[in-house]
Write a structure and sequence with these properties.
- The protein is mainly α.
- The protein folds into two domains: 49 residues, Arc Repressor Mutant, subunit A; 142 residues, Tetracycline Repressor, domain 2 (Orthogonal Bundle).
- Helices cover 69% and strands 0% of the residues.
- It is built from eleven helices and no strands.
- The chain is elongated and about 60 Å long.
- GO terms for molecular function: DNA-binding transcription factor activity; transcription cis-regulatory region binding.
- Keywords: DNA-binding, Transcription, Transcription regulation.
- It comes from Marinibactrum halimedae.
C-alpha cells in the first residue's frame, strides 16, 4: 500500500505581500476612510514599498473593491457543505443561509461597504456592481440549490434568478438598512429569525414534497 502525503502549497513572496497589503488597507480604510487613506500609509502598515502596493493595485479604490469582494466571497465559499439527499432540506438550507447572513451582517463588511458608498456617493453604480460582482456558482448555497434541483427535491427553473432573489431577501434585512444606518446590525435573535423565516419562505415556493 502506497501512502500519499499531501502538503499545502507554500505561498509565494508575492502572495504574502499581497495579503499584507489587503490586511493593511482594511485597517487603514476603517480608521481613516477612503478620502484620508493614502497608498503611502497602506504601504507603511503593510511593511512593503509603495511601488509594491501599486504593483498589485492600481489605486486605493481598486484595493477597496478587492476588499469588499474578498470579504463576501470568503464568507460564502469557505463553508464545506455538500447536498445530502437523505437529510432535511430545511436544516441544510438554514445552515447555508446562516453563513450568508453572518458574512453580510458583519461589522467589518458593513463598515467597509459604507465607506465605499460614501466615497462613490455620486457614482452609485460602481459600488452596486462591485457588491454584486461575485460569481454565484462559486458559493456553497448555489451549489447546494443546484444539487437539490438535480435530485428533484427543489423545483427551480432559473438558478441564477432564484439565487439572486434569495440574496435580495437577505440583504434587505441584514445589509442595506444597516449600511444606510437606518437600523442597527442584527443581534443573534434577529439573525436566527431571519434565517428561519427566509428558509420557510424559500421552501414554500420551491420544495417538491416534504422539506
Amino acid at each position: 500500500m502506497t501512502e500519499v502525503a499531501t502538503k499545502e502549497r507554500k505561498k509565494t513572496l508575492s502572495e504574502i505581500k499581497r495579503e499584507a497589503i489587503i490586511d493593511a488597507a482594511k485597517s487603514v480604510f476603517l480608521e481613516l476612510g477612503v478620502e484620508r487613506a493614502h497608498m503611502n500609509r497602506i504601504a507603511e502598515v503593510a511593511q512593503v514599498s509603495k511601488r509594491t502596493v501599486y504593483k498589485h493595485f492600481e489605486s486605493k479604490e481598486s484595493l477597496l473593491m478587492q476588499l469588499l469582494g474578498q470579504l463576501w466571497t470568503v464568507g460564502m465559499t469557505k463553508l464545506e457543505v455538500s447536498y445530502d439527499p437523505s437529510a432535511s432540506l430545511k436544516l441544510q438550507l438554514e445552515s447555508l443561509i446562516k453563513e450568508e447572513v453572518e458574512a453580510l451582517s458583519s461589522e467589518e463588511y458593513i463598515g467597509l461597504a459604507r465607506i465605499a458608498m460614501e466615497h462613490f456617493l455620486f457614482q452609485p453604480g460602481i459600488i452596486q456592481s462591485e457588491l454584486e460582482n461575485v460569481d454565484p456558482k462559486k458559493t456553497a448555497l448555489y451549489r447546494w440549490m443546484k444539487a437539490a434541483t438535480d435530485d428533484g427535491r427543489l423545483d427551480i427553473s432559473d438558478l441564477d434568478y432564484t439565487f439572486s432573489q434569495l440574496q435580495s431577501l437577505l440583504k434587505g434585512s441584514c445589509f442595506w438598512p444597516q449600511m444606510a444606518k437606518v437600523t442597527p446590525i442584527l443581534d443573534e435573535e434577529q439573525k436566527m429569525k431571519l434565517i428561519q423565516e427566509s428558509a420557510k419562505l424559500f421552501l414554500a415556493r420551491y420544495v417538491v414534497g416534504v422539506a
